[in-house]
Amino acid sequence: MGGQLQVTSQVGIGSRFWFDVTFPIMVVGESQQIDLSGYRVLVVDDNQLTAEILHKILTGLGCEVEIALGGYSALTQSALADEALRPFDVILMDWRMPELDGLQTAEMLRESHSNNRTPLVVMLTAYGHEVIAESQQIKDVPFVNFLTKPVTSQVLAETIVNAIQGKPMDTHPKPRSQRLLAGLTILVVEDNQLNRQVIDELLSYEGASVILAEGGVSGVDLVLENENLFDIVIMDMQMPDMDGLEATRRIRSDERFATLPILAMTANASQSDRQDCLDAGMNDHVSKPIDMPLLLRSILQLVGREVATTQQYAEYYSTATVSLEDEPLLDNIDLILQRFGGNESFFHKIAQNFSPEMNKQLAQLTQATRVADYEKAAAVSHAIKGVASSFGARRLATYSAYLEQQFKQKSFEQVEVEHWVDKLAVLIQQSSQQIATYGESTEASIFANDGTNQLSQPATTVQNIKLELNTLMTLLAENNLEAITRVDQLAPSLSGHPQWSVLYTQVQALEFAQALDTLHIIVLEDK
What we know:
Blueprint: E1 4-10, E2 14-20, E3 40-44, H1 48-60, E4 64-68, H2 71-83, E5 90-94, H3 102-112, E6 120-125, H4 128-135, E7 145-148, H5 153-164, E8 185-189, H6 193-205, E9 209-213, H7 216-225, E10 232-236, H8 244-252, E11 262-266, H9 271-280, E12 284-287, H10 292-302, H11 333-339, H12 344-351, H13 354-370, H14 374-390, H15 394-409, H16 414-447, H17 458-464, H18 466-477, H19 482-494, H20 500-508, H21 512-525
Parallel strand pairs: 3-4, 3-5, 5-6, 6-7, 8-9, 8-10, 10-11, 11-12
Antiparallel strand pairs: 1-2
Helix pairs in contact: 2-3, 7-8, 12-16, 13-14, 13-16, 14-15, 15-16, 18-19, 18-21, 19-20, 20-21
């Protein structure tokens, strides 16, 4: 390649490698706008906001678009279109819908078109690996391609063109062979949305295909309906509809799953809890907060992939003898990042959800105590403990564990409950502020480069990126999902602004109207 590789090395300090190589400048033409004029598309999604966004994108590409808010509606609209001799060319089908999911709907569409042309079905899913895993269990899949949400207009247009032109999808992507969990399909049964998001990201990063269940009932159903799909199940212990112990017993009652590895995951860490797990039929027990080295070790051992490691299980949090004064507010940032697989970018993104999630839980706890529903209060305290532990909020985790036990015992006065809730609110506020600081510090390190990591003042930054902000405004006004990509690109320049976290959260939540208002505030502040 005509380059030069060099190295310098000093004993006890380390080595530095670098190379110089010359590359030609590639001429990249502007991407051509894909014209889909004349094609009829049916968007099927039970989420009306998502359906409307897709409708707007497709209309802008020239398509004639209709919306169905469920599988049965899709079947009806497709039949009516056929009768009117105006059939749909492509159907964008949400993978997960109540009553009739995308796969069932697509199969019924194919059966109803046995004597004529079936519309091309493209699946939409928040987790592309679900489609890959489930499609590999079906000999003749009823769809031609899939898209992982959120989608951009360019990707959407290209996918539709590929479907129309008959280009097949790759249902066997190259495995991430260097990842420890490559090739494994893991079911995670967890009722807390934030915990699901964290463990999904961590396991997926290690190469696993992760399927999520929001409670014990749906977890049991997924196992019983998919005999050979899962390599291991990670089961939360305390869930409102059916706890992990009962879910495991029901799975074990079916002899087909007598040897399916089931790993318990809970914020409780006593020896009695571990024994309860084993008695119910679970194979092992790990505690929250999630510690990736320990979790990986347990998974690999249970699926028969031994790894050479001498790392021992981390010490469990103890709430019996430690006072709050002895607990740090938060763990060291390096220890917290280790739980997130060392991924600073992911931690910064997920840390923005901590405060909203904790305040939501606090509101639920407050309401439960007002109506003396102490079982609910104990369950909410348990949920707070789990999330707080994952983020290393030691003092909050310890105190919520204490409240969980108190609410279970029900031996207290109402005046004590009011004091407990007030103190919990203070701890949530303190922990949220510190985690926000940690998030800002990790974001700053991500964008640091040769001493340029000092963020510009908001006014100067806004003035320098007026064109980019105007583009983002246009995308938000059009409900264009390109806004998600655009706001990520603005992070290095705009993250120092006090309104940045609000704007970023709104865009990621697809709250485009609110995000547009926030962006107007940012721009106006600079005038």
